[in-house]
Amino acid sequence: MRAIQKGFISSMLLILMIVLLAGCNSDEGSLNQTRYDGEGYILEVTGDRILVIDQPYVNKTWKDIMDVYTGEAIWLSTNTRNLKPGQKIHYKIRGGIDESYPSQAEAKEIVISK
């Protein structure tokens, strides 16, 4: 009987170790992984905000494409000093999003993609 109990305990410990090790290898919840609220291309830079859309448009403004564009679009309030039309960015939002079209929000963080 003791041999059966010993084998059962050994098997359970082995299964527990496998589950724990598999969890350690998971990227989910990793401290090094940054999650962004969105990404896109800067279409316009005006004053203290930028207009971000899903796809790049060269030398166009919102007025040029608004009748044909059907993707996501959001005005982000932010410091626009280093931002230019055409750049691909990832962003985090502070607070909520105003549900207009284009949407409007305050950017908490913006990272320019390389």
N- and C-termini, Cα separation:
64 Å
Order of helices and strands: HEEHEEE
Radius of gyration: 24 Å
- What's the mean pLDDT score? 84
Structural class: alpha+beta
Number of helical regions: 2
Question: What features would you describe in this structure?
Answer:
By secondary structure, the chain is an alpha+beta fold. The protein contains 2 helices and 5 strands; from the N terminus they run H-E-E-H-E-E-E. The chain has a 5-stranded mixed beta barrel with strand order 1-2-3-5-4. The model is unreliable at 25-32 (pLDDT under 50).
Which helices and strands occur, and which strands form pairs?
Elements (H helix, E strand, L loop, with lengths): L1 H24 L12 E9 L2 E5 L8 H4 L7 E5 L10 E11 L4 E10 L2
Parallel strand pairs: 3-5
Antiparallel strand pairs: 1-2, 1-4, 2-3, 4-5
Concise synopsis of the structure shown:
With 114 residues, this protein is an alpha+beta fold. It contains two helices and five strands, in the order H-E-E-H-E-E-E. A hairpin with a 2-residue loop joins strand 1 and strand 2.
Question: Can you tag this structure with a few keywords?
Answer:
114 residues; alpha+beta; 2 helices; rod-shaped
